[in-house]
């Protein structure tokens, strides 16, 4: 019996015992996902988190060599982890996309050796720019939780959506990762009347107060997460959060929801927030100063296999130029100086963009 089967059996046996009321502790058996050789304990101090999105499973993936050489403490798959959104949607197509990804030696090596966590975006959800009304989301979610080998007792297996949070490190060195599901609950977008016009390429802002990005349960969960103590909080959203000046998908499609998120960060007094996003097939850094709050930085990293070489964007709140070559990103925390460095790196691991901020500024 291989190790994965053994773990899966142990996990389901533990769950059955829990259901039967047996008091046996579960964590030691089920906390470790899948093939991974080691998972940091909750007390482990982590300082380098790598992040990337948009992996076309059919394209070459030399980027894994640089990511593995970078030795991150954690890798975040930020969505579009495979492409399987052709319509009509078929479960077989999604499952074979995942299996093709496994044939990439670099991906397989990372999956075995680097702690990692994943959230989906539209192309692994199953519908380009898809939201709550995607008919096959339940089947797609089952394929996700199985492929990513989530433990049998993971709440994502039983609740709606894939939102998730985890924390590492002792007080004073605590990193919280919050992964938002911007697909499962998301209301219909307002389609542009001028396709490809700069600033309204696909969608225009919709101020309807009924419309939602996260849905009620996820909003409540997020508020509880933001009230937990942490020193650095990485909020991962498939689509961009504060980036301005384009009409692709993003939180700007629902300005009231975007404002609600900024207000939630402010009134929960959640310090240390940095936003991570994908979707756009560009890399970029943005900065926004919310009224009454501290500056919010957003690191967009999208295009591990197929960045958009011709991309243009007005980017009024962007810091520096767009990255239009394939890339990944890292968040590197210097605990000694209490600085956070946001980096975008090339397929060879060369630093393309860098932005630093002091944790003392994110309060
Ligand atoms: Fe993508």
Task: Summarize the structure in words.
With 363 residues, the protein is of the alpha/beta class. The chain folds into two domains: 1-30; 37-361, Alkaline phosphatase D (PhoD) (Purple Acid Phosphatase, chain A, domain 2, 4-Layer Sandwich), CATH 3.60.21. Helix content is 25%, strand content 21%. The protein is built from nine helices and 13 strands. The strands form two sheets. The protein has a seven-stranded mixed beta sheet, covered by helices on one side. Strands 3-2-1-11-12-13 form a six-stranded mixed beta sheet, with helices on one face. Strand 12 and strand 13 form a beta hairpin. It is globular and about 50 Å long. It starts with a helix and ends in a 5-residue tail after the last strand. The relative contact order is 0.13. Residues 1-32 have low confidence and may be disordered. Fe (ii) ion is lined by residues 54, 80, 123, 279, 281. The site of fe (ii) ion (FE2) has 5 residues, from loops.
Task: Please sum up the structure shown.
This protein is an alpha/beta fold. It has nine helices and 13 strands.
Helix and strand layout, with pairings?
Elements: H1 3-19, H2 27-30, E1 48-52, H3 63-70, E2 74-77, H4 91-102, H5 105-113, E3 116-118, H6 122-125, H7 137-147, E4 164-168, E5 175-179, H8 216-226, E6 232-237, H9 255-267, E7 273-277, E8 283-288, E9 296-301, E10 318-323, E11 327-334, E12 339-346, E13 351-358
Parallel strand pairs: 1-2, 2-3, 5-6, 6-7, 7-9
Antiparallel strand pairs: 1-11, 4-5, 8-9, 8-10, 11-12, 12-13
The structure holds fe (ii) ion (FE2).
